[in-house]
Specification:
By secondary structure, the chain is of the alpha+beta class. It has 2 domains: 122 residues, no CATH class; 92 residues, no CATH class. It contains 6 helices and 14 strands. A 4-stranded antiparallel β-sheet has the order 1-12-5-6, with no helix packed on it. α3 packs across α5. The radius of gyration is 22 Å and the shape is elongated. InterPro entries: SU10_adaptor. It holds the Pfam family SU10_adaptor.
């Protein structure tokens, strides 16, 4: 079963196959290995650039951890995405009970609280204890713990790795770079498409505020794929 995350953040392997197809290469079988490293480099370069450009809101995650009766400590892992959570990047925690609105937990558990080891109830507080999430009181039944956090830039090196930003943006950048590298005549058009999509994505992160790559959009030149000493790159403005 796929999730919205699966659809929006495709794996490096899936993106490479799409990129090879869009550039006119074989995307499966032994022949696909011939340009594997080059295709990966286009995708990884796009991933790095986009992560540097977007606001941290684009990296926010809504994690879920299943609490069980009688257990007060849990690993820092988002059960939905099987992704580690950095406790220093946690924004808030909430308890979901049935169909009621989630209830926000307060951070901090005192030693007096912890001394009540036999007290089982609806959790109201949380803390980071011995590299685990600790909730108090100890759950009296199963609950869903919702964790809002900012994910670090994910590893994007192995075929099963997923990017930290929407894969459609990563793929569009890679197509523009690939077309420039292989001297396709429509490389500039794809560079412009990438710039527009990135600008829209950045604006969405700030709701109704308008933001442009590199500052104000007034007098800016269209995005261009240019050649440099280190190969091709996308120049905006």
């Amino acid at each position: 079963m796929t999730t919205g995350f699966d659809e929006r953040y495709e794996t490096l392997g899936a993106l490479r196959a799409k990129l090879q197809t869009r550039l006119g290469f074989i995307s499966s079988g032994p022949g696909a290995l011939n340009n594997r490293d080059l295709m990966n480099s286009f995708l990884q370069e796009g991933h790095d650039l986009i992560c540097e450009e977007v606001d941290v809101k684009a990296m926010r995650r809504r994690g879920m951890i299943r609490l069980t009766k009688g257990s007060s400590k849990y690993d820092w892992v988002n059960d939905v995405l099987d992704e580690d959570i950095d406790p220093t990047r946690v924004e808030s925690m909430w308890i979901q009970y049935g169909s009621d609105d989630p209830i926000k937990l307060e951070q901090g558990i005192s030693e007096i609280d912890r001394a009540q080891i036999d007290f089982l109830s609806f959790p109201t507080r949380w803390d980071n204890s011995a590299s685990q999430i600790e909730v108090w009181p100890t759950p009296d039944q199963a609950y869903d713990l919702i964790v809002w956090y900012v994910a670090p830039k994910s590893r994007f090196e192995q075929d099963a790795d997923r990017p930290s930003v929407p894969s459609s943006l990563v793929l569009m950048y890679a197509i523009a770079m690939g077309k420039a590298h292989f001297r396709h005549p429509d490389a500039q058009a794809y560079g412009g498409m990438f710039e527009r999509r990135l600008r829209t994505f950045k604006a969405d992160q700030h709701e109704n505020q308008r933001h442009f790559m590199g500052g104000s959009g007034a007098g800016k030149r269209p995005a261009q794929v240019v050649r440099s000493a280190n190969g091709y790159r996308l120049r905006v403005g």
